[in-house]
Amino acid sequence: MAVSRGGPHRDGGPGSAGPLAPDRGPRTRGWSGNLREYALEVRGSVRDSERGPLLVIAGLIVIWCVFQGLDDKFLSPRNLSNLGVGIVGTGLVAVGIVFVLLIREIDLSVGSVSGLAGASFAVLNVNHGMPEWLAVIVAVAVGMAVGAFHGFFFASLGVPAFVVTLAGLLIWNGLTLYLLGASGTINIDEEGLVASLTSRHFEDDAAAYTVAALGTAGYFLAARRKRARHLAAGMPHQPTGDVWLRTGLLAAVAFAAAYTLNRFQGLPLALLIFLVVLVVSDYVLRRTRYGRRVYALGGGVEAARRAGIGVERVRVAMFMVSGTLAAFGGLFVASELTSASPTTARAAGSGMLLINAIAAAVIGGTSLFGGRGSPWSVLLGVLVIQSIASGMGLLGVEDAVQFMITGGVLLAAVAADALSRRGEPRRDRP
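Structure tokens predicted for Xylose transport system permease protein XylH:
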């Protein structure tokens, strides 16, 4: 969130006490001032770390406008609902990538782990008759165990994460092909538990509007609470008008999305689950002691050790989170395709899932250099990736062009991240 920036004003006005001063009565600028002055105040309160996501939002709007101009079905309720479901599988994998990127590492195995989870579920449920709920638990446990395996080799034995997870990519992909057998594909029950993850919708209009209202209210209360804490401690705080403005913008977007979804089949279950995962992940990283340790480790390994942080334990935990969410993502991809197969470009276990997950995390604003980013950045990044895929699909453009465009967007995002890091002190490596 933004903080108020006000160094001393030459005119000795309300901001002359500096950014640490508490509110002292009505502002001469704000809601009571003219619109241009307030816009300048809000623009000045936006931190550098927030300008990246704002650029991504602007880019997403441009993408939507371009594809809508080329095909008027792009912004139809049906396509946007399908877009909301389509982002979930890749988005869940990308959230796991964020946890690893925050500690300045990379996990190249998430695509293979997602494929292994989908194959494990299909083999146990379809071939061996295991109940779906138990097969889901085993598949997720497989992802968690794989993450612990990677974390052990990296944190305890000192093998670089790049090497460990690259080896894992090959090992788990080979194991997936072995499990699936000669056919390479196992179809799952289209009416079953896993298939319903992406096919079920809450058709009652109240469901989508309730989620929009709860999300808006939750953001407002969290922002007000944070502002009150900072104000009481004499720290930089967000202007009251800024809180209301952001809440209003969020409400407009949330209720517009709810209205659009209700015009088709209602709120998708998959999208609701994804939003819950984002909220929980963000809370863990930003509001818990463990989350602060993750960001501290991303800021510098040696400094984290000196602060008493168990570096090895945190590293293993982050790879376990990555493996677990990769397994969840693989189940959602299998649900959407109603099959377990790594042989198609969209399937769990394919190289494109790995590339899209990393691209979604980085494009959304998570830094490859560690210590900066949040799970919510995935939502923006995966919307960009999936919007390009959806638009290209409607236009009948071949996959090769889509790959080139996605690669270009990813390169631009990484370049922007690298440029934003220029001039910062170089941080230590273990």
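The CA atoms of residues 99 and 318 lie 6 Å apart.
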